Amino acid sequence: MTDFLIKDIEMRILRLINLALLILILLVVLYSRAFANDKYNFRQTKWGMSKEEVMKSESSEPDHIFSKGDTLAYHSEIFGEKVLILYKFSFNKLVWAKYILSKYLFEKGKIIEGLPIIDFGKFEDILKKKYGKPKDNGTKFKTKELRDKLRILIESGDGKESTELMDKSIREGKAWWYSAWESKDTLILLHLHGNKGRIIFEISYASLLLKRLTDEDLL
Q: Which one of 26, 89, 189, 210 is most buried, by most CB atoms within 10 A?
């Protein structure tokens, strides 16, 4: 009897949580429609759109390798750079999307040292022109020792060695650069990081209300 009561309570709680999430999604959809003059949040889409609506907004077919489960993927080009576009859904409602620079994602051969840092500055300038000064930005390090070592190199004027160390640290996931902006209902994040020797360069857009519906951290 006790086990039955516990399971019944758990089911009731789960139903309440799901109901609350659905109400939140409905509020965001209504909010988006109320501000239709703002037109779109990301490309030709608004937060809360369904998969079907997002697919209609894109002129090409989805990439069937990267499109899995709650994710739709497309290939396109922005500001002279080829990109992979990802759309993320929860309860069939769009909650975030991002551009990933293809030249790093599908890296063939050696990327010029320091190029990711140059690209970061380029896209940061583009985003500043649209959204103004970042709400937050900076460089994060996994260890204080790495941060101090890089600071000493920069202060000594050794540009080559400091660039090499920063590039290597980013590739190994020991350091990352970011700049973040907020519009009325969207978080915009420019993020340069790495994993296992590969560069990951992303520009993410997330609904300020709906991003909590996924367990993925943008930074």
A: 210
